[in-house]
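Q: Given only this backbone (483 positions), what sequence would you predict?
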């Protein structure tokens, strides 16, 4: 499929910028912000990030035959413009190159009359995005967010990958401050918006759960008037957002009033557990009047909280005209993202749940409950690092995780980080013996875990991204995990 081309007029119309040099004869095939991977047929947008300024790489990209530039007007002088003209470069100047990147993505999105699903929420965004894309892909060629490209750079770069072959798009949107979801959804112009749930996360930048709800709710503002918002009917904040939404609302959940309901939920572990045949089974009940009325679903990942993600994905697929059988096939084809409820079995016969990619109180509690539900008569061990960006409530919320772990039946805690003592305090307050809580650095914890775990035991490894709990998984893997 041939790319949708960009002209100088497109660049100026999209960004509202001014032409410094070049004319209508300029044609480009794509947009990039990375001097290392840019094609000579791309436009280079010189964004200014936290650690790098794209303007510093302009000489490098122009030397590699790139002929299109979007720059900050304050960052180029007369000599620069003269050299651009001499090299036959088309250059547009703007006030803010990050905003220009988003504006170009919004312009590009408008070129395609395809359904766009935008997904945000405190927990489960990535899994829901992957499931939704897998469901839609059963019927449509679907573009999806890759990796962690869910911010002011990643969302535009995802949409700028759209070409004439795509029939649907699924875009993940993250945030840590007010206004971010508003801007990202403004760029996406979604037909369908999904808010997975609202939980204490990014409190350092948002201050309260109420503010988190308001920030996530910004998504609803930019859903198309004919569009739909899909909300969690089991979440009080989801119900509150739905009550004030000015768009059609569809609910998913386990309650009897949910439009897409999950019932008869159970863990599913194959008899030959050595095959890592872990999953979750449930019955999906469709809205009244649907044919079929319900179907059996298997998610190839453990954790009853994954049912919520699957229900949201099913709702998006149903609204896009995907059949019940295709929805089932799409959820069955879902693969967990690395570091998110990724289960492995060691040579010694114990199991690791690698959920090290990120953590907040809601996701931590859900993962702990999954750990305990899988352990059977064996030990359940939590290896946890700090949950970051919780602000003044950090100590209290970490204590709460300790209480949840003790109350849920976790047998041992292996903790690292600034708030490890707070987690221990919470666990001990609920009756866990102090000698069942080990605090230390990650390499020491990994070594002690290998000494402690027996065949059939389960260990959950989890913490915020910046804490690097994947180190513990890697140390265990290098020592003891089959690949």
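A: Predicted residues:
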């Amino acid at each position: 499929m041939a790319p949708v081309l960009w002209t100088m007029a497109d660049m100026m119309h999209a960004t509202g910028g001014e032409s410094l040099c070049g004319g209508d004869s300029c044609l480009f095939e794509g947009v990039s912000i990375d001097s290392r991977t840019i094609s000579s047929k791309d436009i280079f947008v010189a964004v200014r990030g936290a650690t790098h300024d794209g303007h510093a790489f302009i000489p490098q990209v122009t030397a590699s035959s790139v002929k299109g530039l979007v720059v900050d007007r304050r960052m180029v002088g007369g000599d620069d413009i003269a050299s651009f003209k001499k090299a036959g470069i088309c250059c547009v100047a703007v006030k803010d190159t990050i905003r220009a990147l988003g504006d170009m993505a919004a312009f590009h999105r408008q070129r395609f009359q395809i359904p766009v699903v935008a997904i945000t929420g405190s927990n489960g965004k990535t899994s829901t995005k992957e499931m939704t894309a897998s469901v839609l892909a059963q019927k449509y060629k679907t573009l999806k967010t890759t990796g962690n490209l869910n911010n002011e750079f990643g969302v535009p770069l995802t949409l700028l990958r759209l070409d004439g072959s795509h029939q649907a798009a699924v875009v993940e949107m993250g945030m840590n401050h007010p206004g971010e979801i508003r801007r990202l959804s403004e760029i996406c112009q979604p037909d369908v918006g999904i808010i997975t749930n609202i939980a204490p996360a990014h409190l350092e930048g948002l201050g309260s759960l109420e503010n988190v709800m308001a920030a996530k709710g910004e998504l609803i503002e930019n859903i198309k008037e004919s569009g739909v918002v899909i909300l969690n009917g089991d979440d009080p904040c989801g119900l509150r957002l739905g009550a004030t939404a000015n768009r059609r609302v569809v609910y998913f959940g386990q309650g009897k009033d949910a439009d897409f309901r999950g019932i008869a939920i159970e863990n599913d572990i194959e008899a030959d557990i050595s095959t890592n045949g872990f999953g979750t089974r449930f019955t999906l009940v469709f809205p009244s009047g649907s044919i079929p009325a319900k179907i059996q679903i298997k998610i190839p990942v453990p954790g009853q909280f994954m049912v919520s993600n699957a229900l949201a994905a099913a709702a998006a697929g149903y609204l896009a005209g995907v059949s019940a059988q295709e929805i089932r096939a799409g959820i069955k084809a879902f693969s967990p993202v690395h570091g998110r409820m990724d289960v492995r079995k060691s040579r010694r016969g114990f199991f690791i749940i690698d959920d090290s990619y990120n953590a907040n109180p809601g996701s931590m509690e859900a993962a702990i409950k999954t750990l305990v539900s899988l352990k059977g008569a064996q030990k359940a061990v939590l290896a946890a690092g700090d949950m970051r960006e919780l602000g003044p409530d950090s100590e209290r919320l970490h204590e709460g995780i300790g209480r949840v772990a003790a109350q849920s039946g976790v047998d041992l805690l292996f903790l690292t980080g600034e708030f490890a003592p707070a987690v221990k305090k919470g666990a001990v307050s609920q009756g866990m013996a102090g000698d069942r809580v080990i605090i230390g650095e990650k390499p020491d914890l990994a070594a002690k875990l290998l000494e402690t775990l027996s065949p059939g035991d389960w260990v959950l490894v989890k913490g915020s991204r910046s804490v690097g709990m994947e180190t513990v998984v890697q140390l265990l893997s290098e020592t003891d995990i089959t690949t």
